[in-house]
Design goal:
Layout (H helix, E strand, L loop, with lengths): L10 E2 L2 E2 H11 L6 E4 L3 H7 L6 E4 L6 H8 L8 E4 L9 H9 L6 E7 L8 E5 L2 E6 L6 H4 L3 E10 H10 L13 H8 L4 E5 L12 H21 L3 E2 L5 E6 L7 E2 L3 E6 L1
Length: 266
């Protein structure tokens, strides 16, 4: 990012990336939201005004599995754990509600999406409709390379089983990291049903790693916000030339001209 700000503090539609993820978790009724943090800890905590959060420090960045490990000691065994990512801010609450509705208490689900070009992503392998494994690009066969359904990393797992599998994770790989995706194979080996629920749009699950992707996410979110307003009867001279950086509420016969910026609650 070439920025003094941690990545999750980069602004999207007027608020940090992480705030979008937290808002989504609140919208689906999560009662125990834990943020695993590392770089820029004080800045992140001071910028997120949510007293109901639980914070877990990941002092060393040793992979996604290692990150989730930090959140688990205080997580009750009978919880269902929904794992989200601080740099994936465009997920819709209704997508996560579909994920939860399809998954019984003793089952697991992962969020997937069909990609026009899945190069570089882990492929989802199914048998009889159920997920049986995640295959990384470098390990995929010729047939598996043709699979367009990829793993987004978002998953829903029973807490007690997740703790057990995380305890068994190894880091015998080139990066020396603990990969959360290894949990999928562990679940299948233990006989657990693993559902693959598809997100309807690719931009919902896009991760942000640089300023170009941040700009693409901004346009995708602005387009979503303007579409909602147009559906509610708001007119726009040019839907592509407006920015909403807060909450915009409109009455009847509203027309918004070009190059308008709305900040805060309007």
């Amino acid at each position: 990012m070439r920025s003094d700000l941690p990545k999750v503090m980069q602004s999207l539609a007027g608020k940090p990336l992480l705030a979008h993820v937290i808002d989504c978790s609140r919208a689906i009724g999560a009662d125990d939201v834990c943020v695993v943090y590392g770089h820029g800890a004080e800045l992140v905590q001071s910028a997120i005004d949510d007293q109901g959060l639980r914070w877990a420090l990941q002092a060393e960045q040793n992979g996604t599995g290692h990150a989730v490990m930090q959140a688990m000691p205080e997580t009750p065994d009978d919880n269902k754990v929904l794992i989200l990512f601080g740099d994936v801010p465009l997920l819709l609450p209704q997508t996560l509600q579909r994920l939860m509705a399809a998954t019984a208490d003793d089952e697991m689900a992962i969020l997937t999406v069909d990609m026009d070009d899945p190069t570089g992503y882990g492929r989802i392998v199914r048998e009889n409709g159920r997920v049986v494994r995640n295959v990384e690009q470098k390990d995929a066969s010729d047939g598996e390379h043709k699979i367009t359904e990829i793993n987004t990393g978002v998953m829903l797992v029973p807490a007690a089983r997740l703790k057990h599998w995380l305890d068994s994770l190894g880091n015998e790989n080139a990066q020396g990291e603990y990969y959360l995706t290894d949990v999928i194979a562990m679940a299948v080996a233990d006989g657990m049903t693993v559902h693959g629920i598809k997100a309807e749009q690719q931009d919902e699950v896009m991760g942000i790693n640089d300023k170009k992707q941040l700009a693409e996410a901004e346009r995708a979110l602005q387009s979503r916000l303007v579409d909602e307003l147009m559906t509610a009867g708001v007119g726009f001279a040019d839907p592509a030339r407006v920015d909403i950086r807060g909450k915009l509420v409109c009455g009847k016969d509203v027309f918004i001209d070009i190059n308008a910026v709305f900040e805060g609650d309007v």
